[in-house]
Design goal:
Helix content: 40-55%
Bound molecules: 1-deoxymannojirimycin
Strand content: 5-15%
Largest sheet: 3 strands, antiparallel
Number of helices: 18
Distance between the termini: 43 Å
Strand order of the largest sheet: 1-2-3
């Protein structure tokens, strides 16, 4: 990242969004990596030159601005202690607040960068976008003592809690005006993903003092296990399928790479972010937690195989898994073994009862075995989700295989995506060698992907998962408990005054 890339081309344009966005997203990555020169220059630009409103007549997405800009500022402020970054975080949040002034409690999707006014989406809103704002706004309330940020986003959670779901699962479209679900389509990929992620992470961020979010997460994961888990052929990998017409309709074996956040989130929720490095550690988990950790580990293997089985060694954006004959029967048999292990009650018997359920790594010389890739789905955008899950699982379990898988993925990125003049590029098609470049590096590559690689291979415990929760854009926020002086000013999902 050079300084020129950080400067706005003109205050009239949308340049801060296009060029400056990477600076916000990468601030804490630079800090963690110890590159204080870059960090200081970027922070100075943010503090002294960036203004959010007064640009061209374009709309900035509330979700993206929250997770990348606000999340980036909050994490960088926490790490560095720079007050100027906190001031900017407050400025950005205040500019986003008009989006919450709706009858339904669902936020409007955008803020106009010229007028500062909130703008409704012309079509239905994406469930993930409308419901992935809580970590950032709650933490901001915590460090400022201002309840309005927390209350705006907890209002969204209250709305979600009251809606009729499908065994805990939610359709991916909502009506912004009525705050109700539209369509029945369910998936944990695009438009669905971070709704589930933030249920678990809200519980963890507030130090497990708010049970309502855990309740909603558990209901959702129970729905995932009941309807979405499947085994592939020939390797019997675990994967997550989609339900285009809801739980009562048929399924599709499509899996977005985006779904690969799930192994990390499930493992964090199962362990509460505590290390499980020995058999004794695992034995302290409940049977349900052990089962969820097992599923998380197996799903991570499936995500790794999306890379391993592709000719470039990099995952396509979308894969269509081949469902194993008796695939659902295999899932039911797995669940029955979990129940048997739970009934047995003897923690040491777990491995014996559950042993052998793991799938095996596929041989190195076989390509595209367990899934197919449709035309136009073979691109790779340098996405972080699999590396994120590998980092989380390695931190929790200490198992070497996660580093080995991560290293193979990193080498493939380096081989095909590295640009000699600097940076990495997205690819058009990972199935055809050599893959052609797109000349585009999303801000999440520096914000998330490279940060998770760095943390996966770092021997120092730079961001301990029992003390931090990463927002969905990989910006770590410190775990906190609701301040005594704020309890009476905040609304809570279960009206539990922590
Ligand atoms: C990121 O911006 C966030 O992780 C978001 O939740 C979904 N996907 C992209 C990266 O793939």
């Amino acid at each position: 990242m050079g300084y020129d890339e950080l400067k706005p081309v003109s205050k009239e344009g949308i340049s801060w969004l296009h060029l400056g966005l990477t600076a916000f997203d990468a601030l804490d990555t630079a800090y963690l990596m110890g590159n204080r020169t870059i960090f200081d220059r970027a922070a100075k630009w943010v503090e002294e030159e960036f203004v959010m409103i007064g640009h061209a007549d374009v709309d900035a997405n509330v979700f993206e601005t929250t997770i990348r800009v606000l999340g980036g500022l909050l994490a960088a402020h926490h790490m560095s202690g720079r007050e100027g970054l906190k001031k900017k975080a407050i400025e950005v949040a205040d500019r986003l607040m008009p989006a919450f002034e709706t009858g339904s409690k669902l936020p409007l999707s955008s803020i106009n960068l010229k007028t500062g006014k909130a703008v409704a989406s012309a079509s239905d809103v994406s469930t993930a976008e409308a419901t992935t704002l809580q970590l950032e706004f709650k933490y901001l309330s915590h460090i400022t003592g201002e309840p309005r940020y927390w209350n705006a986003v907890e209002g969204v959670m209250k709305l979600m809690d009251g809606l009729q779901k499908q065994d805990g699962l939610v359709p991916i479209y909502m009506s912004g005006s009525t705050g109700t679900f539209r369509s029945r389509e369910i998936r944990l990929g695009s438009r669905g993903d971070s709704y589930y992620e933030y249920l678990a992470k809200q519980y963890l961020l507030t130090n497990r003092t708010q049970p309502g979010h855990l309740r909603m997460y558990r209901e959702a994961i129970s729905g995932v296990k009941q309807h979405l888990l499947m085994r592939s052929r020939p390797s019997h990998l675990l994967y997550i399928r989609e339900l285009p017409a809801g739980v009562t309709g048929g399924h599709s074996d499509k899996m977005d790479h985006l779904v690969c956040f799930l192994p990390g989130t499930m493992a964090l929720a199962a362990t509460s972010g505590r290390r499980v490095r020995t058999r004794e550690d695992r034995a302290k988990l409940t049977s349900e937690q052990r089962a969820d950790l097992f599923i998380a580990e197996e799903l991570a293997r499936g995500c790794y195989e999306m890379y391993h089985q592709s000719p470039a060694g990099l995952a396509p954006e979308i894969s269509f898994f081949k469902e194993a004959a008796e695939g659902r029967g295999m899932i039911e048999a797995m669940m029955a073994r979990f129940e048997e292990a739970a009934r047995n009650g003897d923690a040491s018997a777990w491995d014996t009862i559950v042993g052998g359920l793991e799938s095996k790594d596929s041989p190195d010389d076989k390509y595209t075995n367990d899934f197919e890739v449709h035309q136009l789905d073979g691109h790779n955008l340098l996405r972080p989700e699999t590396v994120e899950s590998l980092f989380v699982l390695h931190w929790l379990t200490g198992e070497r295989k996660y580093r080995e898988w991560g290293w193979r993925i990193y080498r493939a990125f380096e081989r095909w995506c590295w640009v000699n003049s600097g940076g990495f590029t997205s690819l058009n098609d990972v199935l055809h060698l050599p893959p052609t470049a797109r000349d585009r590096m999303e801000s999440f590559f520096l914000g998330e992907t490279l940060k998770y690689f760095y943390l996966l291979f770092s021997d120092e415990d730079l961001v301990p998962l029992d003390k931090y929760v990463f927002n969905t854009e990989a910006h770590p926020l410190p775990i906190f408990e609701v301040r005594a002086d704020m309890k009476d000013k905040l609304i809570f999902l279960d009206d539990v005054k922590a």
